């Protein structure tokens, strides 16, 4: 606006090479270059403008999303973008749309659960967007309990078809994104019935709408489920309702990698575990962890830049007031979120590796790491999305009153992000899955079966059950070994305590239900240990760039010690640390905040977000917040006229009446 960088002094304070950090954040030089190029391309294109979103009504908003999705596809084709570049473009367009589900769930479901033949038939159509698909699992009556789904797929041997039917109101499909108004096809989950026998839930490719005129096919009732939380925000998505009235599909549209139905109607299961039917969810949970770091880093970038711009109190001799970022209370709320964004980035990278590894093993029929992959994706999805949703709201508060304005970008970000705690598995339901996995691991400890992967720490259970932290000075908390021992012993002791309490119940399922709140806490402790340990492992890698390692070490310590402080009840009650050691951890945390403070702006610059992507006046790169806020206010439609519409109808008569009353 005035061409001046109002945050230049802050940028000059940085003690590390920001460009090198950008590459660490992106994951590689190549990833950085792709991301940088595509984000700038989107930002420069008026076709991807998004600042008017909160002002639009539902129909206008939705049509605008359709236009953008079609335009994005046109640009992808024109520019010959690779799959990686196209995904980045959709990411930076930053508008939830049916395409998220088409590329994010429909295509992966066919890839993961379809046979080679099915993939060859359907994937080319989906890749060219000649068909558009959604993921139709959840119903009005059941979401978390997938085994409770009611939609049926009954095999008819006479015609070699499945009859898809919604027998009750509660069996109506409800929520699938892209279903409401756009999808031509869906991967629909239904109970497979052959010869009167129910074989449980399986996936089927079902055509929903005509490819000629988009009208629903016979027997199909479909529509949108209505407005969702937040104006604009996720209402760009057509989450849908769908009912089937005896809709017939050919037999070869059942996804048959896990199990098959023969021409004669015989149900056959391959050696593949039935849980692979849930494979798409494992894939998406893994991507949601990486998304958590994006959403949190975005909110943190806004709050950090604004905290350096905003001044309140503390003026000396008529000089400027203090920057709010210098208040320790502000740092204590903000810097752990900054550290969490980095922590989630690195655990997301690791989880992607784990997922790729398990996928490769599955191809050779090695299913041994599937339970761990399920527990890790479920647990980390839960812990990172909860922390991110809470973190975005904290960032809004960190920006004071201005954070509540839509132009801060934070209300929309929160509204779009918060359902991540529910979709792809309710966070509590998922933590209970982790708890089951942990209880199984503990129960096998005496059997000679060595725990592996993320539970390998349980292999030293005797040590972890009785060790005492040897931290004596605040600086001792900077040793990764001290942090790891405290987190491992806390997680192990909480799991073992649950396992011991479970033995008091004659019926294990009753015990599990009764102790579920404690089990969830044990699962959280285990997941936090994974995040801390993956951050520490990241620091063992070669990290080029002046001062980059030092900054990451500080952030890693902040993340761990902040968790230790927040959950000190766990650490103290399990006897892993003493009250004195907890207090030393807090002293160390304060000193780490001082270390990070001069680098804070550079640490958020390293995310390399364009102003377009951030969509926030408070977070703009040049920090020139006040003129931009002032100017934006005048663009609000309410300011189109000086005297508001409705004055003559509703304000003037009131004022006149008051005048008469006053004269009386
Ligand atoms: C406006 C613009 C602003 C823009 C801002 C943008 C910023 C945004 C940033 C990011 C945005 C990201 C955008 C992403 C878009 C995403 C769109 C939303 C997509 C949502 C899609 C969905 O929600 S799809 C539906 C998902 N549904 C669920 O997840 C259901 C959850 N329930 C289950 O998974 C299961 O039912 C259960 C696991 C809870 C239980 O299953 P079940 O009863 O069958 O199992 P058991 O408990 O009996 O266990 C049996 C056995 O199986 C093992 N197991 C269970 N699940 C799995 C699995 N998945 N894989 C492997 N193994 C599994 C379990 O452990 C048991 O094992 P045992 O050894 O027998 O103990
Ligand atoms: C924005 C959005 C997009 C979505 N997109 C899709 C999509 O594309 N496709 C699709 O199929 N679905 C989709 N869903 C549905 C989503 O996956 C489900 O809402 C989710 O799995 C949670 O299930 P539920 O709604 O049945 O919650 P419920 O299970 O009814 O949860 C209600 C409460 O009960 C608790 N609870 C449930 N079971 C237990 C238990 N065993 N123990 C303890 N507590 C329990 C939960 O913690 C929660 O507090 C979407 C949902 C949203 C919000």
Automatic annotation (TrEMBL):
GO biological process terms, alphabetically, are: fatty acid beta-oxidation using acyl-CoA oxidase; lipid homeostasis; long-chain fatty acid metabolic process
Q: Which SUPFAM superfamilies match?
A: Acyl-CoA dehydrogenase C-terminal domain-like, Acyl-CoA dehydrogenase NM domain-like
Subcellular localization, as worded in the UniProt entry: Peroxisome
Ranges for domain Acyl-CoA oxidase C-alpha1: 278-439
Q: Does the UniProt entry include the keyword Lipid metabolism?
A: yes
Cellular component GO terms, alphabetical = peroxisome
**Organism's domain of life?**
Eukaryota
Q: Which family does it belong to?
A: Belongs to the acyl-CoA oxidase family.
| UniProt-recorded name of the protein | Acyl-coenzyme A oxidase
Organism taxonomic ancestry: Eukaryota, Viridiplantae, Streptophyta, Embryophyta, Tracheophyta
